[in-house]
Design goal:
Elements lengths: L23 H5 L5 H8 L4 H11 L1 H7 L4 E4 L11 H6 L7 E5 L6 H9 L9 E3 L7 H8 L9 E3 L7 H8 L9 E3 L6 H9 L9 E3 L6 H9 L9 E3 L7 H8 L9 E3 L7 H8 L9 E3 L6 H9 L9 E3 L7 H8 L9 E3 L7 H8 L9 E3 L7 H8 L9 E3 L8 H5 L6
Parallel strand pairs: 1-2, 2-3, 3-4, 4-5, 5-6, 6-7, 7-8, 8-9, 9-10, 10-11, 11-12, 12-13
Length: 417
């Protein structure tokens, strides 16, 4: 994290004294050959390379330019110095910068314009512009930028982008290399999703994040029917008021069969939705399924536990779903969930009996991460855990927020890990 723009000395004045370049013999016959310097630089932070290594000699500077650099600026830094973003965009020492994080700096459309027009930043592959007050105008600068044609990752989370801005991205010849796109917390609506789904320019996407984007069932249907999005492996659609109609299309879509990670948290997922997912031949490659915040209850868990189509799951999140010990029993006895390594049951209605099902389960022995926070577990449940030998395989165990788990109970877990 960079604390001040001066740390990279982003000005037009040379960082390196000209005397370093007048003695070619010194550069060519230094104590290290180029290959050694190259290996050394791989162990150093990008900022250190810019501040120190580029100033050592011409040889070090030239080799430094072969190292991909990554910079992340402290939130709210650049808006405090009006010229900072302009200086950054014109800094000759950033020509090998591949990853740039400007999140939370409120650079606005004008700041985006400098970045998009910068010849110095044309090697960027990852650009993070979250929380920057960017609207549709700012998106046009990105979409029309030849300098940003190497981008593979673009994060525009929490800006002011609407469907028109998405249209610019979807039609951009310069953004064809994108594989990761985050448009969460923007009001793109179903119309914006339609542009993405029909885009020949975005057919290389493997990760799409549309959390809280107001897409609804209509937007999901566009995604599910999109041949252009058939390469997606990660799809996050949290808080979009998606119900049975949308889930049904995802579950039956031949274009979604490459999905490995599906997040439908905090939607309108009911028992019928869960049954659709659990019986889907098109979703059998899922390794991660998140249904948190849908209040699906115990009976819905049975569909997941009995699903041959979900047997590849390694991560399952059912937090905040009103699941009790009966639902836990289905999971614990499931021969279809034996590959689970991570199970998140935070904020449910699980008591000591539910804990007992988990610790006695032959099917959950591959778990390395378990979250039982904010349930109804007391000292008895803690004893079940602490006295179980195979539970010591856990790397992460969360139990905080259980009303009767006090400091004395935690003492029983001393030395557990």
């Amino acid at each position: 994290m960079i604390n001040h723009i001066s740390e990279i000395d982003a000005s037009y004045s040379p960082m390196i004294n000209s005397n370093h370049f007048n003695n070619d013999n010194r550069s060519n016959h230094g104590p290290f050959v180029d290959d050694i310097i190259f290996e050394i630089l791989h162990f150093l932070d990008s900022l250190f390379i810019i501040q120190i290594c580029m100033k050592i000699s011409k040889q070090w500077r030239q080799v430094s330019f072969q190292i991909p650099l990554s910079l992340s600026f402290q939130q709210n830094l650049l808006k405090q110095v009006s010229e900072s973003i302009k200086l950054l965009a014109n800094c000759e020492y950033l020509k090998n910068l591949t990853c740039l994080n400007l999140g939370g700096n409120e650079i606005g459309n004008e700041g985006v314009k400098y970045i998009a027009n910068s010849e110095r930043l044309k090697n960027l592959t990852s650009l993070d512009l979250r929380y920057n007050e960017i609207d549709n105008e700012g998106v046009t600068y990105i979409a029309n930028s030849k300098c940003l044609k190497n981008l593979t990752c673009l994060n525009l989370k929490h800006n002011r982008i609407g469907s028109e801005g998405v249209k610019y991205i979807a039609n951009s010849e310069w953004l064809k290399n994108l594989i990761y796109l985050n448009l969460s917390f923007n009001e793109i609506g179903s119309e914006g999703v339609k542009y993405i789904a029909n885009s020949e320019c975005l057919k290389n996407l493997i990760s799409l994040n549309l959390l809280l984007s107001r897409i609804g069932n209509e937007g999901v249907i566009y995604i599910a029917n999109s041949e252009c999005l058939k390469n997606l492996t990660y799809l996050k659609l949290v808080k979009n008021r998606i119900g049975y109609e949308g889930v049904k299309f995802i579950a039956k879509s031949i274009y979604m069969n490459n999905l490995t990670n599906l997040n439908l948290g905090f939607n309108e997922i009911n028992k019928e939705c869960v049954e659709c997912i659990a019986s889907s031949e098109c979703l059998k490659n899922l390794t991660s399924l998140e249904l948190k915040g849908n209040e699906i209850g115990n009976e819905s868990v049975k569909y997941i536990a009995n699903s041959e189509c979900l047997k590849n799951l390694t991560h399952l999140s059912l937090k905040h779903n009103r699941i009790g010990s009966e639902g836990v029993r289905y999971i614990a006895n499931s021969e279809c969930l034996t590959n689970l390594t991570s199970l998140d049951l935070y904020y449910n209605e699980i008591n000591n009996e539910g804990v007992k099902y988990i610790v006695n389960s032959e099917c959950l022995k591959n778990l390395i991460s378990l979250d039982l926070s904010c349930n109804r577990i007391d000292h008895e449940g803690i004893d079940y855990i602490s006295n179980n030998a195979w539970f010591k395989n856990l790397i992460s165990l969360e139990l905080q927020g259980n009303p009767r788990v006090d400091n004395n109970n935690w003492l029983n877990l001393n030395g557990f890990f």
